[in-house]
Design goal:
homohexamer; two-stranded antiparallel ribbon; 9 helices
């Protein structure tokens, strides 16, 4: 494994092929438990099951490219991530554009391999429809999970154009399949115009916090609320980049104006301490709509904060 | 009238020709009172009378395209707009590029037709110079109006390059013609460097709240202030997209940095209850300068919130 | 039907909702034989079954927008299209993103409706995978067709990622299903690096002319060659926008450098006289990658030349 | 006058405020005959009287910025322009956006000042509607001119939206006012779809060469044809940037696909020897639609070739 | 000196060559004390010594272009800048791309000329590596300075790729050379992932306020803190445009997400009263990554607020 | 070494970290003769020594990303490259931005390592200033070389801003150092305005063919001319992407309009048979100015054609 992590000695410009955070490249299919890897960042280059803008298939590429600028030290957590965690770039899962069911199987297989070696999968989408595959793999290894969803949309529609699996239906499916437990889950950041059925009472049992409510609460209180909600259960953390306002993340498929800032989102991640995190996804970065790569750079910062959170949790319990 | 509003059954991608919010298309010239239309969204594709960037002539097209993503349910107002209001796309008014006076006549005629059938005109510009035509039509039907202006600039210069009608002079002209009453009007969001004469006392009698003052007050207090100011008078609401910071609305003609966020602007609209609203304009969206259509999507959200406000007012008084 | 075709009197800016060429909007589902429509331009907003860049789902929207600039008179054919032909905008066919098989059924149904009323369907994609549905509908009404394909790629792979229906496999499938006859078909414009199997002899029997060969032949000789090849058979004409160099059509999914110019492509279309044309498709315009809409404008010119060819043929035989 | 022309000693990056070709800045209002200036490049920042895309008002700025890359030596003409000619940047003429008639007066006054000091005006637009003002000034000093027009459109419509002065009507007006003589004029590069009236015989008497015809003739023969046509008359040369294909000039208002290349256009200019050239305009560069400033750089090359032609003519007759 | 400051009478579009704020152009090499100039805005077109994105070499050009939109009146300071101060555009300093040491000498020479005539230099970069040259010149005339740095990064690395002078090492070098006094200096706005050595205690003695801390403090308290820190010492104010979030300033070399808004930055500048300001730099605006010029417009507003601060200080002490 | 070359089985989207052509990644420092590698594609991420636009530092990244679309079969050469040649991605050489002399040493060291293992280096820049380092390494192993340069500019200036090593001086330096022999070298594609000294007779002895001359000759004759010129000498082939017109390669530092098409350039490469090729460079791709990555895709095609030429030469002599 070539190691690019000695970032000071090597110019960012000279990184060669761009891996996530200039980390060693270890395709998930070749990982073994002996590798003692703590976390695997992997790409899921899909955008077929989306109702508006496509382009998220190039999300993994854009995040890899932007991540050459990142370092591993966190001022707030007071740690250096790669001194605490062993993290690798697991490559991209295979996909079959236009064949969503087949693609879901391939994603699930890739994620399963990560759980099998005891590592935390961090999926970089791709659109949000990957979540059902992600959760099937996670639940097989860890049982039903609590969902912590930062997102402008709930993604709990029943169907869409007559089909059941879509980026807007994924968490209803996950509940139906018993992969997540709404009673210990929380959805944060919702806003915008909605179809009529979304005005009815939620029949699934999620806690839902709108974008305006989240900002009014502030990061500290919101983080406390999340901690209370999930308790000691295993956690699936998902960050849809459209959680933030499109001013901060123009490169996304279904932009929803009126959202919080990047600063708010990152501060919230720094306040969270989700010790039992079992699976992570960062979704809906659509590079063709990005400007100056700012959405990709935000994606990098989101992964950085999540890695720092995991590292802090490891340090605290070592 | 073809109806696209059954949005769940029809893919947003398959909307065919893009009307505002996938609403039925009814050219204003063909509207009659029997249509019982409550509001007419219409385009005003002009950008001639602008001192800096042009491009706003494509504002109506961009807003129509972006609006295919919108739905009609409002979480905050707890209503579905098209269950309360009958809204149509009234097409675009005719314009003669380079001939501002002639264009103002054509705009006025188009808006007049909407008032004649008792509907609320919602003009999608186009640059702000359309307002004098908008207000002439409105005042003919409703008498002098109170102006509620969300804008980075006051637009009350006396002349510009030696001419009287321009996007920066429009509200001085409106006062001179008796179309709006400054004593019951309010201008919100002003900021940036100004010509010397703007430092003198306002000779027109408007209440003016700068951008910084607005944010310091907060949406609730600001909405109260607006309500106090306008009282029970008929209202002209105008939203210049440069009210928000160019980070949120890069696609505009005279960007003014240092403004509020989209979230602030939309929250303010949700706090307003302008029962006597008689004419609405959304102006200065300039698509050639937009990125990832975020300005157009903000424009859609602004119209959505205004429609929801009107719908709520109707519901409350039904 | 509102008629925008009196283009001189109405500003292009004031066209209202953008239909193809400002033509009347008649959804294909509502067409009847009594409408006596000669040609129907319809959108197919898909991009799922593509192996590289997506975005073609917005092709129909971009072509509609750009077509407001077009007129109907052809200097070379010496006719005014809408004096000879009755053409309408048929709207967009319904699609289910991520579900290619289901989408193909919906496309076929839409195209079938056009053949049923005796009109020529002109499909505006969307990616090239739509062709199998297009040809199934056409062959049902007209029997096996001769393919005239202007394209940088042959699209005759056997499978791709283990599936059979994809934008790169579509004409092999069409041959297998008996929808087109390779012996009377011709593929023009191929270039670029190819997989190994493409170096073997063609097992399907197509005539294939590379991009360099086409330019060396010149438009007149090439048009003669096409005429000889297709004879009096019914014809399916397909124009993949990547036929031209990406300098002329940057907005496409699989750009192939080294191609001919727009001038060459349009000149070729003007030289063709495909009297028995039965179905037309214009595919792979991907607006997120377009610059200054030049790809969309080229798409408009391609449709214009095809309409002029059909009109000339009608005139000649009237 | 600060002189930037010693280009080798000063970095292009350090040019300070960008003048045309880093030439001295001499506002036209301050020029006197004692300055012995041969040519004045001046900006005309207008785009009001255009029927489709605006943005050309920033043409002068973009051409100034791009021209910092240019040098003064011509390989083909074997001369160094600023050793033969004294050229200055004359600044921009004043304009009143939205008031076309008033703006035409201001342009005419600016151009007149250049003729008065015996220099050649080179107008950098701005849209083509400036030409009527340009020609009024030129004809006052030089009598009726022969027009050499490189352009995708003839610009001889009778009216447009009911008005007479527009970028598409300008040369019909010029003929009516006796400013140009069609019998010694030539229009080159026309193409694209046209309104019905353009299919009729030309009633004005221009020689018109389509884009395809021009390319078929080749530059040398075409240049001979122009020379024959204009003979020894005074000449107005106008270069509409849409003469070339939008692949080469995406930054323009009414892009017309299917045109010649930049190489063809520049080669043609190098073949021309228009000794009696009296006024020059370069129009329709619209920077908001430009990509990587290639249209602006083409504009610079066009002016360079025209200056070189004028310099060669001076050298030959010195 | 041509004076463009009478902005009302002259259209912004007709400004001719773009100087900073349409001010008179006076190359620094030609300035004399008799000119009685108070401040000189000058460009430093460099980007060589940067570790990630280049492009800042075009920063001066972009700021000049955007500044045509600015006026001179400040509502908050209640003054008109050019009634109090005499300001000129000093042109660009010479640079030698690829030769950083030589370039630093040239910059220092240019800045020195401004101090020599008793004026305040306002450097518009270019990347931050210019600061060592700026400070050498300033310290020669004013002795060691207090640094007020608004920036996402501290720029105090020891070396980078084995060299000592780089945009990330500049303030460590300045301390080593005795140009600035850390004990009276303050760094504000830091955030993002950092190399390990940045987690250690600061060995230089700067006060450092992170971005989150700054926002939590608020502008008024922060301004007080700055005032306390610098006391009556001579001040070097530097504004790295990446101080704000990339949503507000996408056009920059090392974007750091999670920063404050433009409104926050400008409000902070309006709260500052740095009477003894002796040198100013605005750096890291990289136009190739800008969108709709919003970063350039922010740069203009930053200079405007700094000029207003200086003018207010002069007024108060006049 | 992970091998991505089985391209049919693996989706292009799922390539994981992007290597050149999905080839195995072997950093040049780790290569040994036992690897029996035939060619090494390596990145040189520099742009400091450029006089106009920067950004070429991201050239290697962009070419890697675009190359995922490429295959290895050549229709014209009738071979599959990776069946004939063993090619790897050698990573990027180290660079020190702003320190050109130091950077040249690092480049030379990297290239030397490739020659040492007997492989052909293919450098992907970065700006053209890399050539002096490239040629020093090549000449050490192969003696003086014949230069085949496809470029819009000769790059033989004597100095620039007072320094000797720059992207515009590189081939004069190479002659002076005896690295290339002008008598057997050829420069093709020159055009545009030039400084005065370029009009004098060439003092170096190169054969120079302008862009217009090259197109007039045609590819076949031109290839013959090159073959005659270089004879049996060792060859350095360099392709500056600005050889083609900026319509085809907008993403470059010093765009020169009026150039040939991509088709011409690729056809020329296919006609060449440079058996003794010893070093290759592809330079001046500047991604920040690219549109839709078309310049990067052209870069990929150029490398493809060169690899095919080398493969054909090997096949012929095996």
């Amino acid at each position: 494994m070539t190691d690019f992590t000695d970032s000071q000695a090597v110019s960012r410009l000279s990184s060669g092929p761009r891996t996530f955070f200039r980390l060693p490249y270890r395709p998930v299919g070749e990982l073994t438990a002996e590798d003692r890897v703590d976390a695997v960042i992997m790409g899921v280059p899909i955008d077929g099951a989306t109702g508006y803008r496509s382009g998220a298939r190039f999300g993994p590429e854009a995040v890899r490219a932007a991540s050459t600028l990142a370092r591993f030290g966190s001022r707030e957590r007071r740690l250096v991530i790669n001194e605490v965690l062993s993290v690798v770039d697991g490559g991209d899962v295979h996909v079959v554009p236009g064949y969503h069911m087949r693609t879901l199987e391939l994603i699930e297989r890739g994620v399963d391999a990560v759980h099998t070696v005891g590592a935390l999968p961090i999926l970089v989408g791709g659109d949000h429809s990957l979540a059902i595959a992600e959760l099937r793999a996670a639940a097989r290894h860890h049982g039903p999970l609590s969902l912590v969803q930062l997102d402008a949309h709930r993604d709990v529609l029943d169907d869409y154009f007559g089909v059941k699996h879509f980026h807007g239906t994924v968490y209803r499916r996950a509940v139906e399949e018993g992969l997540i437990d709404p009673a210990t889950s929380i959805q944060i950041g919702m806003r915008g115009s909605v179809p009529k059925e979304d005005l009815a009472e939620d029949d699934l049992g999620f806690t839902m916090i709108t974008s305006d409510e989240a900002v009014a609460l502030g990061c500290t209180e919101l983080a406390g609320l999340v901690a209370d909600r999930v308790g000691g259960t295993p956690i699936a953390l998902t960050f849809d980049i459209d959680f933030v306002d499109p001013a901060y993340a123009p490169g996304t498929g279904t932009p929803e104006v009126g959202g919080p800032s990047s600063a708010f989102a990152l501060r919230l991640l720094r306040e969270l301490d989700l010790r039992n995190i079992r699976t992570v996804s960062l979704v809906e970065i659509s590079p063709p709509y990005d400007t100056a790569d700012i959405t990709a750079h935000l994606g990098v910062a989101v992964i950085f904060e999540i890695l720092a959170m995991v590292a802090a949790s490891r340090s605290a319990h070592a």
